[in-house]
Every structure is written in structure tokens, then in C-alpha cells.
Amino acid sequence: MVFPTAYVTALSSATLRVLAYIFFRWIPGHQLPPIIYSALLVYLSSYLFTPLLILQPAKHNSRRRKQQVPQTNGILSEDIEVRKKNTVEDLEGLGFEIVSGGPEDTPETPTLVQDPDSDTTFELSSQNNTFNVILDVLRSMLLGLPSPANALWGMATVAINVILVLGVLDVVYRGPMLYQSHELSFSRVGYVSDTSAKILVREPDNSQTPVYVSYRGAPSAGLGDAWKSVGTVYSLSNGTDYTATFTIWGLRPSTHYEYAASNNHAGFFKTTPRAGQMPPGSKKLTFLTSSCIKPRFPYNPFQHPLSIPGLKHLAKWVPELHASFMLFLGDFIYIDVPHRFGTDAETYRREYRQVYSSPDWPGATANLPWLHVIDDHEIANDWDKQTRDPYQAATDPFDIYHTSLNPPPALPNASYFQFTQGPASFFMMDTRRHRDPELPASAHSHGKSILGQTQLSSLLDYLKRDEPAGVKWKFVISSIPFTRNWRINAKDTWSNYLHERRIILEAMWDVGMRGDGIGVVILSGDRHEFAATAFPPPKNSKWPLSATVHEFSTSPLSMFYLPLRSYWEVPGEDDVEEVCIKYAPDGNSKFGAVELEEVKGGEQGLLRFRLFIDGVESWDYVLTTPPAVSGGGRSKDAIWG
């Protein structure tokens, strides 16, 4: 018979193993560890009360003691005899009494066993062969049940479940608890323009103060070897998490420089070309885009607790791509995944320090400026509570490590940014600080906003403004997807703010009909998938087909992806058609390289988007800026033909 505790044992074991796999490979959600811990407790408790052997009731009267069973003729296999002898000895050691079929009997003799605590006699199958042993072992290892064949297999299946839970504990607690990174000392480059550069230095060791930074032209620049002082900071305190930001002014465009800090950190950077100009030589400006980082995911117990596999993939391509900067579109940390340890500023600061302490950070970022926008996991999942707690604590380290190195704000004290580099200008939106609640107002509500009125006005002014000669592209940067085609948790995207989105889309289409040859592209992240989407203007409208807006949404740089498919085209709403160009959901690491070139003659700009998944270039796509305004019908191919 099968004891009830066996069902509980098998179910709790299966629950633990399936959820552990999901946690290690698919999504390290904070909901899973408590369930996994509980499943182990249930499993161990039920396992101890599950008999070693699952026996079948005999079909005859069970009240006989030591009934003699007739011997049968046959050849006794020595192997079967040994295993039967061991099995009988195990049963006797547990208090069972052998009624018949002991080691002196033939293999065909049924083994009858009397339970000392009841009047029931059980029959132990005499088919004690290799096939049955294998079945017993598989049942034990797959279902987590005790093994009738060998107690060691039962111990092994218990060990598997215990090790899985230890792995979950390792993910949740080892990095945050053992790697506080208080001792982190490093420097990095932030925003670099044609005439300036920002450098951040962190130094918690007071013996290294004062900290001063110097710079000079790189040997290849031919500017001489003389070092020039940038400035000196005489003390660093916990108020800025022991960091200081230095700004270098008076630099030459498109020139290589090197810098050195007094605490033994150094690096290189290259200034950008003047607005409207292309870099000399290559005549191509390249930058990178991605979002979402979580150390040690997918889980590998042999990796450093702060390892970031996606940075290794990035490091392989940085030297070849010659990128000017990285646009990182949010979720630099995951404060609530897999466990939130607090809502104070120090808890948030620790998460930033751990990313910067990763052994994989220097190789991918040594001379690559990173620019940042904030998203929800730097605060809390699906954040829509504006500046309520813990917003101030959450933005404390973001301002220290990221805002201080970003381009100038679009307005004084604003959390959104604007800048121009070479043939492109950029508007970096803040989609969290000013966001109205996602519910209960409908997506079409006229009063519902992601940006807030001031930021929306700044964005519309940016889209309307004339650009310097030679600027061919306007990039609008959003931490969340602009398209409605992502259908899972759509309330957290622009899909839930359609009225404001329509205002922005019309302003973007207006750019394409002005006739000045400027294209509009949206760059976004957040979804842990990649999709390229086209937004052609409504048919028979005032806007020409050439005003089509394109979005490239790329993530994660190093995080999970789900095997579920969450992006598909939906019927046009309010005459807005959203056409899928490319959808690539799989891969734990994705980043895009945007390459801007001039079409021969300089009248149009060319954009090549290159997608990299798990370190391999997987797809590329080419756009050109709008030609002369033209009308007429459209086909799907015409949108990007």
C-alpha cells in the first residue's frame, strides 16, 4: 500500500525543485524563497514518517504467524539471494517479522512480512531484479521518496533538496550580507561632451585624502605630456558615500585624454565631436543601449557572488565597437529582488556599491562613459507613488553615483536630461518621479500623466526646436516601452497612459513633416526582451509616411528572461498602428549598438542598429532620416523599405 505521507513527501519535493529551478533560471522573485523554505520543512517532516519500503498487502489471511510457504523448484541466483538477504535484514532491523521467504528460500517464494504494530501481513515482491532496483532508485531520486533498494539513495534525494535550499539562501543572503562593499575604491567616467568630462572618485580610506585629479592629452593626441590639475577634495564623508565628482573643462573635440586620481585610479576618455559634426576618420558615432542588471543571474554557485555575466559579454565587444557612451535605461539595481533588506538610504547605497564592486565591472566599463535614467527597481517594483517614501532614500545613491555624472538637466533641478553629441540630440525622460498612479484612472484619461506637465512641456519643446546643422536624429529615451504591444503587465508601460502618449507621438510625427531631414527614434528597456516597433502616422493624415517613428527596446544586460511570449501586435487604437519589425525574447544578456553615419552627400543620416544576445551579434537593421515630404498610400514594407 502507498502511505499518505508518501504523497505529501512527493508533492513537497516536487514543489521545492520546480520553484528552485524557476528561481535560479527564470525569475528570482521575492515571493519564491518563503515557499521554497516551507516546502523543505514539509518535505523533511513527511519523509521521516514515510516507511522505508512501500509494501503491497497480501491477498490471504494475514493473522498467521510464521506460515510455511511451499518451496518451488528452480535455480537460486546468487545475486538475488544476496540482495534478498540484505532486504530481509533491513526489515528485521526495523522491527518487522519475516513470516516466509527468508534468504534460505528460493527466489520464487513470496516474502511475507508481519507488521509488529498491527495484525496486517504484507508481501514483499520476489521480483527483486535489476529492473525493479532501477525503478526504485528513479522513484526515489525523482519524487524525493525513501529508497527500498538502498538507504543511500534516500539520503541522496534528501541531500538534493537540502542543497537546492542552500542555493536559494546563497542567492538571497551571501552577496548582500558578506559583500557590503564599504571598502570600495574606484573611479569612473560619466558624461563627456566636446569640451568637458565628468569623473567620479570613491575613496573611503581617510589616509588617501586629500584626493586630487589630473589630466593630460593621451600620447596619441600630440598635446604634450604635462599634467593639469582638475581640482582637490580635502575630505570625503558618508554624506556622499565617500565620493566626489570632478568636471574637466576646456577640452578639445574628438580628442583622446587620460586622467589620474591620487588614490591610484586612472583611465582614458575621448571627447565627442562638435554638435552636427561626425568624428574624424571613421565618420561614425556609436553608442550602446541596454537596461537591467542583477549580479549572479542565472545562478551559478561557483561564480563570485557579485559576478555579472552580461558585463563579460559586453567587455568582449567594447574594444571592437568603439562606442562613445552607454545609455543605461534603468534597473541598475534590483532593491526588492530577491529580497528587500530595508528602505533606508544605506540599503540602497549598498546595492550600487555591489554592482561597482563586481569583478566584471572594470573590464566592460574602464573607458566607457555610462549615462543613466531611473526606473522602478531602483525604488520599488512598478513605482507610481511619485516622491513618497522610500523615494528620497532610493534616489540618494542614484544622485550620488549617476545624476552627478549625467548630462546637464533639461531644467534646473530637473531629473530629466538633454544633450547633443555629433549628429544626434537626446532627451532622457524620467518616467517615475512625476507619474500618476497606474490605477484606477483609464489609459485614455486626459488627466493621467507619466511625465507631469513641466517635463511634458520640456519634451515637446525639445521636439519642436531646430537643431544645429548636421544633427540628423532626435533620440527620446524612456525607461519603459513606448509601444502597446507588450501585453503582460502593460499597466506599467506607456500603454496605460495613451492620451499623453498620443500627444508625444503627434509631436514626433511633426518632426518628420518639417522637411529638415531629422528622424525620431525612441530607445527603451525594462521588458527583459528585445523588440523593434514602427509607429507610422495614421492613414490619410497630414503626416507623410516618412515621418514614421521607430522604437528599439533592449533589455536585460544581465538578468532573467521568461519562456513566455508577451509581445504581439494589437489592433490599432485611435488610428495608431504599431508594427512589429523584430521580436527577440530569449537571452539573459542583450544590448544594442547604435551606429550613426552620413549618407553620401550629407543630406541624409543613416542609423544602423545592431543587436547582441548572450555575446553574439544576432540582428541588425538600417534606417535613414526622412527624405522630402511625400504623401500617398503605404504598405507594411514601405515603412522601412
UniProtKB/TrEMBL annotation:
Pfam family name, one: PhoD
Keyword Transmembrane helix tagged: yes
Keywords, comma-separated and alphabetical: Membrane, Transmembrane, Transmembrane helix
InterPro entries: Metallo-depent_PP-like, PhoD-like_MPP, PhoD-like_sf, Phospholipid_Metab_Enz
Protein's UniProt keywords contain Transmembrane helix: yes
Regions that span the bilayer: 36-55, 151-173
Domain PhoD-like phosphatase metallophosphatase stretches: 322-567
Superkingdom of origin: Eukaryota
Protein name: PhoD-like phosphatase metallophosphatase domain-containing protein
Organism (species): Lepraria finkii
